[in-house]
Structures are given as C-alpha cells and as structure tokens.
Design a protein that fits this description.
Layout: H1 9-25, H2 31-47, H3 49-60, H4 65-91, E1 94-96, E2 101-109, E3 112-116, H5 122-135, E4 139-143, H6 149-162, E5 168-171, H7 175-182, E6 188-192, H8 195-206, E7 212-215, E8 220-224, H9 230-242, E9 252-258, H10 262-276, H11 292-307, E10 311-314, E11 333-336, E12 353-359, H12 362-370, E13 377-381, H13 385-394, E14 399-402, E15 423-424, H14 429-435, E16 437-445, H15 458-467
Parallel strand pairs: 3-4, 3-6, 4-5, 6-7, 8-9, 8-13, 9-12, 11-12, 13-14
Antiparallel strand pairs: 1-2, 2-16, 7-15, 10-11
Helix pairs in contact: 2-4, 2-5, 3-4, 3-6, 4-5, 5-14, 9-10
C-alpha cells in the first residue's frame, strides 16, 4: 500500500494482522535489533527536521520554527537517544525474593501497539510513543491527526522510507478512520487527546478488552503563594502558557493569586508579555491557533464571560489590530475571577486565555482544586515548606512541577500520565517500556515436601495452625 489517504477500516485490520503475524513468526527482537529500529527514527528526525518544521508551520498557519525545533525535533530526539541507551538494561529479568525457588519477572513484548496522537505536538507524540513501544519490542501502528494534514502526510511518507509495514505503520485519515482504529484488537492502545474523546476510545477498546493508556489533559491549576517572587512566578507561568499559544495539555489553565496581590499580578503580567512578545501579529515566536474551529471556540468563551460581566484584560503590547489577519492568532487575555459556571472554567482552554481567581486562605485553594476533576498537571510557586507539603499531600494530579510549569513532563526518568479525568496509565522512559511490555512472573520451583498435597497429615495441620497468628 503506497499511500493510505483513502484507507478504509478493513485496511487497518489487514495491517494489524500483518504486524501480528510478523511478531509471532519470529523470536522477539534482541536489544541490538531494537536499538537499530530506534536509530531509524533518530535518522528521520535529524534528516527531515526542516521538513517537519515547515509542515507544522503550514498546518498551524504560523508556528514558531524555533519552538517546533525544540519540542517536535530535539525533545523526541533526546527521548529516543535516552531510550536506546537504556534498552539492554530495561530488558534484564527483574529478580524477586522468595523461599520457594528462583523467581523473576521477565519483560516480553505485548505484540502490536496502537498509538492515537493529537495535533498539538505531532512530532513529539509520534516519536515519544514509538520510543517506548519499540524499546519493548513491539510492532507499532500510529494514527496521526487529521488536523495536521501536511505534517501527517510527511510522517506517513518518511516512515515508509525506513520501516516495513509489518514493523511500523503510519495511518492517516479523518474521525471515521480514528474510530475504526480505536476498535482494533491491539495488544495495547495509547491515546492522547481530549477527555470527551478518550471516553469513546476507551469504550471502543473495551469491546476487545484492549488495555489503554489515556493522556487526556484537563484544567491544570497554578498557585502563586504569598511567599513567591511574583515577577519570577509570572514570567514562568506566562512563558509556559504562551508556548504554542497555550495549545499544550500541560499548560497552566487557571491561576490562584492572593487577594491583595491581584493588581500587582495584572501589572506584572502586562510587563512580562510585553517583554516576551513586544508584538504578536508578525512575531515569528508567537504561534497561531490550529484552525477556525478552535479560534471561534475560544472567542465564544470570551463572549460568554463578557456578557456575564467578567473583566477581560487584553495583553496586546503593540495595540495591534487582529481583524483580517491571514491566520488565527489570538490576543492573550486575562479573565478576572470568572464564575465557575462559565465554559472557560469548565473546559480545558487550550489557548492563550488565562483566568485567575483570588484567594484569602491557602486551605480554600486546595479545597477548590479538590472539588474539581483531577488535572494532568499542578503548579505551585512559593517558598513555604508547609504549603508545599500541603499541596503535595492533599491534592491528586498526574504530576507536579514546583516553582515552574510544564517541566516534569519532559523528564525521562519520571512517568508521564494523568489520573482520573486526566487519564490513566503512563509512559516515557522505563515506565513506557513497562507499559508496553508484559511483565511475566516466572518461578523455578525447588524439589521438596509439599504441604499443599493431600492427604493432609496431623503434622501438616499443626504446622499450618502454628503459622496462623498475629
């Protein structure tokens, strides 16, 4: 199949069957073979980096080339290299203590892993998921997003240059193909996307009892303590929030600000945005929204908030006119104390809008967070050990970064994933290897008397009885 632009659901199953047959027909890939497969992915990122950046910019209308090179080329490249260096170590049997012989956990490939990626970081998600799946010795099928038609077509083309279809296959197509993909009897399915879609993916996977890893995002809260350096905190929050124009699953979604610091917070935000982005419309570092649908969705949030009397604070340092622009760039906007009933406080924002809520007591902040669905990320800025411990012990989120945002998601030695409404399971590093492996328990038993074997003697009864005690 030279291209799969007109792929049908039945074709997806043909590829899956081909990969499963290839997996079963041979010995599991050795560490050397897995490293060689990862080397091919490394080569694609290095050789086609400019093509990837150009395709991403075309799909977004405009996307910061430097940001794309860092996040969709260098980021996954580092993950692939780290994974390659660790494969042989991760594959070693994990010895377990027992007095019944020799026991160990042997990690073996699951078989065929399906990966459903989102549109906001296609390079990063395709290659990061691939790293863990190949490290574990699996064949891989990857459904790329229809929102990135140029990037997806590029990935499909270049992957065919270095991988046979029974090794790694890229699947393109619209929502119907995505739905058909999620219905396949994979040995594991990794999905990245919205919680609403994740429910459909999980429901479809359940028909074949396919285990799933869901990375779903959510509304990640950010807390500014009274002990924080406000300028430092705001700089880091705004840097993270305005990366990719806020189109990041881990982006800070709303901020808690001490009541008495709200005016200072607003002034500092204005100052920081003017430093980061003196202009916006023609600024190569400021990314466009992916399409008209998301542009309209975000403006709908602003319209609803405006009608509800919420103060909207536009962050437009050069006072530029955004009407009639060729892309979908959007003015970053603060929303002061929006009501919880508004959509901007209900939905994951995924854009350059930042609501902030004021607080008096620190306990009310934690109580508010705990009253909401569990987020993918949580961020605390401050220098109070008691507050920090209170946040870590009394809240539940996929991960936490202290005194910064986003960064825990890029640490290969940490598991990356959500909890509750923000997902289940994890990947990255050794956790990805284990997610995509079957940890098989093995016991080499020793010969000797077996108290479990009838007939049960009085001696056995006495022995068992003597063991049952506090």
């Amino acid at each position: 199949m030279s291209a799969n632009e007109n792929l049908k659901a039945a074709d997806i199953r043909v590829i899956l069957d081909k990969q499963r047959a290839a997996s079963l027909a041979s010995e599991p890939w050795t560490a050397e073979q897995r490293c060689e497969l990862i080397d091919r992915a490394i080569g694609l990122l290095v050789d086609y980096q400019d093509d990837i950046i150009e395709a991403l910019s075309a799909d977004f209308g405009h996307r910061s080339p430097d940001f794309s090179r860092m996040l969709d080329v260098l980021g996954p490249l580092a993950s692939l290299k780290y994974t390659k260096a660790k494969i042989a170590e991760w594959m070693q049997p994990d010895q377990r203590a027992t007095d019944r012989g020799e026991a160990w956990v042997q990690y073996q490939p699951l078989g065929v892993v399906g990966i459903l990626t989102a549109w906001n970081f296609p390079g990063n998600m395709v290659f990061n998921g691939l790293a863990g799946a190949l490290a574990a010795g699996n064949r891989v099928m990857i459904k790329v997003s229809e929102y990135n038609p140029k990037t997806s077509a590029l990935l499909a083309r270049i992957f065919r240059e270095v991988y046979a279809e029974d090794e790694v296959a890229i699947i393109t197509g619209g929502p119907d193909i995505g739905h058909a993909f999620s219905q396949q009897p994979f040995d594991h399915l990794l999905f990245t996307g919205a919680s609403s879609i994740g429910k459909h993916v999980m429901r479809a996977a359940a028909e074949n009892l396919v285990p799933v890893t869901l990375e779903l995002g959510g509304k990640s809260p950010t807390i500014i303590s009274r002990t924080a350096d406000l300028k430092v905190a705001v700089t880091k929050i705004l840097t993270g929030k305005l990366h990719n124009a806020g189109q990041i699953c881990l982006a800070p979604d709303y901020v808690f600000v001490p009541e008495e610091q709200q005016e200072a917070f607003i002034a500092t935000v204005r100052e920081v945005v003017a430093t980061l982005f003196p202009t916006l419309l023609e600024n190569p570092d400021y990314t466009s929204l992916i399409n008209a649908r998301h542009f309209e969705r975000l403006h709908g949030y602003l319209n609803e908030a405006r009608e509800a009397g919420v103060e909207l604070i536009e962050l437009n340092p050069a006072d530029e006119d955004f009407s009639g622009q060729p892309h979908h760039k959007m003015v970053p906007t603060l929303l002061r104390n929006p009501g919880d009933e508004l959509q901007v406080m209900q939905d994951e924002i995924f854009g350059p809008l930042l609501p902030f809520k004021t607080y008096n007591s620190f306990a009310e902040v934690v109580s508010y967070i705990n009253s909401r669905p569990r987020p993918l990320g949580l961020y605390y800025f401050g220098n109070d050990a008691g507050e920090e411990a209170f946040v870590l012990n009394r809240t539940t989120s996929g991960g936490v970064t202290l005194n910064d945002v986003l960064r825990h998601g890029g640490v290969e030695t940490l598991p990356f994933g959500g909890v509750g409404n923000s997902g289940m399971g994890c990947y990255h590093g050794i956790d990805g290897f284990r997610t995509f492996s079957h940890g098989k328990s093995v016991l080499r038993a020793v010969d000797g008397p077996d108290a479990m074997r009838p007939p049960y003697s009085e001696q056995v009864r006495q022995f068992v009885g003597s063991m049952i005690k506090r």
